């Protein structure tokens, strides 16, 4: 889709982050008692964690589409990205803050055809959409907050493997994911090669690089330096008192890395936000307003504690840890594998997808041309659907 067709020159909202602070929740995300939407819940019991310690009781919220076959051989696991959730398909509505993020890819007659496949999308461990995370209730009846343990991508995959056991899925027909979801998808295929028949890894990596960890550093610092953070124990605070400013700043940094420099320049250039004077007038450039808009939207729907936990989980990601390195780990994968990169992705550059595709036996790499950078994995659904269609062909 062209940039023009995709909303260049749309009328931006007037407000920036924090201007309607009294309306902000303490912590964004789904909370016990909210409408469940299409969520289902699986209670998986205790989980021993890679970094030591354990969670006494893990719950994963998830959604499904299609029907599990009698042979239980048509289940597809879709793993969501950092601030997405299980709502892969469908509109926004009660219990769902955002519309389905891959609605053009998953559904009846689509590339991942729910007339044929039983699609399962869990909310990630550590998140804030009904799975156990820092905003959920600990055994003592209080929010976990700062007591929520450090979890790794491998811990998240262990929880999702336990979900597969509960669903009676011995082997996934496919595991699919983009960005952080791609990290989990690859980790599934490395940890449990016998349980993954196909792998689709989009805009992702086999290991978090120094550059990716570096981009996360100011984001973590922004959240933790917000006075509303209170060491991570803010979930009982009054409405509007959460670490919204810090989370918004983190999103502004992150969102910049999700788009390409060329796209931002082509779209916004040096334009002033309409009605504002950035040159000595205290106003904003349009691109600043755009970032603040994305920050404002995130703080209304996402928990800062989950943002920290999930960011640290991404930083932990390294399929080669304790397995003799990246290439040795990837060589374990037996799944039929397609790797997709976006040519302008500056956060998960093509070279990381090349490393992934080189390491997985028989893997094929597709590079999608897109001006949108990393967010191309959400936007370029037609190109990704083409690859998925080939991988999922009978
Ligand atoms: C993986 C997931 O997280 S899925 C869940 C939803 N995803 C997200 O929230 C992730 C963050 N968002 C994004 O990454 C992107 O919006 C995507 C990938 C979902 C979609 O990308 P695009 O369609 O290119 O949207 P784009 O980045 O142009 O943002 C459009 C918004 O910016 C606003 N905007 C555009 N210019 C300006 C401006 N100068 N000032 C303020 N706001 C502006 C638009 O009004 C529009 O607002 P709306 O989303 O509230 O309707
Ligand atoms: N927009 C995506 C980008 C990170 O993959 C998200 O927030 O999850």
Automatic annotation (TrEMBL):
Localization (cell): Cytoplasm
Catalyses which reaction(s): L-homoserine + acetyl-CoA = O-acetyl-L-homoserine + CoA
GO cellular component, one term: cytoplasm
Biochemical pathway: Amino-acid biosynthesis; L-methionine biosynthesis via de novo pathway; O-acetyl-L-homoserine from L-homoserine: step 1/1
Secreted found in the keyword field: no
Domain AB hydrolase-1: 74-378
Pfam families: Abhydrolase_1 (PF00561)
Record keywords: Acyltransferase, Amino-acid biosynthesis, Cytoplasm, Methionine biosynthesis, Transferase
Region (Disordered): 1-32
Record-listed substrate binding positions: 251, 375
InterPro entries: AB_hydrolase_1, AB_hydrolase_fold, HAT_MetX-like
Any one GO molecular-function label of the UniProt entry: homoserine O-acetyltransferase activity
Keyword Isomerase on entry: no
Residue numbers annotated as active site: 179, 345, 374
Compositional bias ranges of the Low complexity kind: 1-18
One Gene Ontology term from the biological process aspect of the record: methionine biosynthetic process
Assigned EC number: 2.3.1.31
HAMAP family tied to this protein: MetX_acyltransf
Family label: Belongs to the AB hydrolase superfamily. MetX family.
Assembly information from the UniProt record: Homodimer.
Function: Transfers an acetyl group from acetyl-CoA to L-homoserine, forming acetyl-L-homoserine.
Name used for this protein in its record: Homoserine O-acetyltransferase
Species assigned in the record: Quadrisphaera setariae
Lineage of the species this protein comes from: Bacteria, Bacillati, Actinomycetota, Actinomycetes, Kineosporiales
Annotated gene: metXA
């Amino acid at each position: 889709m062209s940039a023009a067709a995709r909303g260049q020159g749309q009328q931006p909202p007037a407000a920036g982050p924090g201007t309607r602070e009294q309306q902000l929740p303490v912590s964004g995300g789904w909370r016990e008692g909210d409408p469940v939407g299409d969520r289902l819940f699986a209670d998986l019991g205790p989980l021993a964690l890679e970094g030591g310690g354990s969670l006494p009781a893990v719950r994963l919220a998830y959604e499904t589409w299609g029907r599990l076959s009698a042979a239980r051989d048509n289940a597809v696991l879709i793993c969501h990205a950092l601030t997405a959730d299980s709502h892969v398909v469908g509109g926004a509505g009660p219990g769902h803050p955002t519309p389905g993020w891959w609605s053009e890819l998953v559904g009846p007659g689509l590339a991942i055809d729910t007339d044929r496949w039983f699609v399962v999308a869990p909310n990630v461990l550590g998140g804030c959409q009904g799975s156990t995370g820092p905003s959920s209730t600990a055994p003592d009846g209080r929010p976990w907050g700062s007591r929520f343990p450090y979890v790794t991508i491998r811990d998240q995959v262990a929880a999702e493997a336990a979900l597969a056991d509960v669903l009676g899925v011995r082997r996934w027909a496919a595991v699919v994911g983009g960005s952080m979801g791609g990290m989990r998808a690859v980790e599934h295929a490395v940890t449990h090669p016998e349980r993954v028949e196909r792998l689709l890894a989009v805009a992702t990596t086999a290991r978090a690089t120094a550059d990716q960890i570096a981009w996360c550093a100011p984001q973590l610092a922004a959240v933790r330096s917000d006075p509303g953070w209170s060491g991570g124990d803010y979930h009982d605070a009054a409405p509007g008192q959460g670490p919204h400013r810090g989370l918004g700043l983190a999103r502004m940094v992150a969102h910049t890395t999700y788009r390409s420099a060329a796209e931002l320049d082509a779209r916004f250039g040096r334009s002033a936000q309409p009605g504002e004077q950035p040159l000595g007038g205290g106003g904003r450039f349009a691109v600043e307003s755009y970032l603040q808009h994305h920050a404002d939207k995130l703080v209304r729907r996402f928990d800062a504690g989950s943002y920290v936990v999930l960011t640290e989980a991404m930083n932990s990601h390294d399929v080669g840890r304790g397995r003799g390195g990246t290439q040795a780990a990837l060589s374990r994968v037996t799944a039929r594998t397609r790797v997709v990169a976006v040519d302008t992705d500056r956060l998960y550059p093509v070279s990381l997808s090349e490393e992934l595709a080189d390491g997985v036996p028989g893997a094929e790499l597709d590079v999608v041309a897109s001006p949108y950078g990393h967010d191309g994995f959400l936007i370029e659904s037609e190109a990704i659907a083409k690859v998925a269609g080939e991988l999922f062909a009978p």
